[in-house]
Design brief:
The chain is an alpha+beta fold and about 375 residues long. The protein has two domains: about 1-30; about 40-385, Cathepsin B, Chain A, CATH 3.90.70.10. It has twelve helices and 13 strands. It has helices spanning about 1-15, 20-30, 55-75, 80-100, 110-120, 145-160, 170-180, 195-205, 245-255, 300-310, 360-365, 375-385, and strands at about 40, 185-190, 190-195, 210-215, 225, 235-240, 260-265, 270, 275-280, 320-325, 335-340, 355, 365-370. The strands form two sheets. Strands 1, 4, 5, 6, 7, 8, 9, 10, 11, 12 and 13 form an eleven-stranded mixed sheet that branches. Helix 1 packs antiparallel against helix 2 (about 20-30), helix 3 (about 55-75) crosses helix 5 and helix 4 (about 80-100) packs antiparallel against helix 7. The chain starts with a helix and ends with a helix.
Amino acid sequence: MKKLLFILIITLFTNSIWSQEDIIVAVNLQLQQKYNFTPVIDIEATTVKSQGNTGTCWSYSASSFIESEIFRNTGEMIDISEMYNVRHTYPLKAWNYVMRQGKTQFSEGGLAHDVLNSVKINGLVPESAYSGLQNSSTTHDHSKIVPELQVVLDDFIKNDKNSKHQNWRKSVDSILDISLGKTPKEFIYNGAFYTPKSFLEMTKFETSNYVTLTSFLHQPFNTTFILNIPDNFSNGIFYNIELNELVSEVDNALKLGYTLAIDCDVSEKTFSSKYGVAVVPKKMEDQEKCLTYIVEETDISSEFRQQEFENYNTTDDHLMHIVGLVKDQNNKEYYKVKNSWGTNSDRIGNDGYVYMSKPFFKLKTISVMVHKNGLRENIKKELKI
């Protein structure tokens, strides 16, 4: 490349029709580098799926996370059902909405700990036992389910004893059974009979082994708190640590062979599933360029992160699965993040994975879920884990 650049400069200087500005532009173009990623850490994960027209990324990310944990525990890669735990979580969201008399959000959204809460009570089933697809459908679409459920719940809240949905729980279950199917009480997997609970036991997945980490300034570090975000309907507990420590814990977990479920904001133009990258360019004019070329990124402070959270520029709008680490040709590291938007190459890059820079992670991550053994000993001691 240096030889080509030298020839270009000599050629331009000897051509009188080129101005000094033209030369500078041409040289800058030569210096631009397209991304060239190489793997650093690559932890086993199941194939990328599509959540379809649903807001159930929380179950897809957590289920993929569980699948990698099962593989780490047993050496067996099992495709578990995302919709099984969605089916069990929707009624809990409905109960929360009714008990709060409709003065809270009722949506398809949730968080990774909602899946673990469901697994603890209801167990696990493989995709082959419960797909959540009805009437020969091949893709998920929940666009009508939540509105239909909300009609039932709002009628009960508004009319109370005069409601035609006095037994709203039964109405909710009926809608979900029709839309997603009844959950199995027993099934066959690899020639053996299981219940959801015995299947969970076989996978050696223990829900008590996992913690959720975050980093915010409105709560003391090295303490736990309930993070007030719209999808935390179940009042999940978060461990609060310093921002650089959060990055260090992710790096440490990956080096030890543990993946992480991530809740983050993907609303920025510089998060691109099409190009498979997520970065935070320092210059506004690089917002398009950064999707294909390496650019200088912004240094993210805890104060700036907090500001973006409090002004709603960072929200809990998407969950994914961190399964590794890659680096570009300048040895800059990016997290390898498994998404749940499918692998259609017409609109999805990197086979459904997104390479997320650490500045983007620091700015846009709400939280990560990880096995306790993936944490450094000093952090476990400080957090009393």
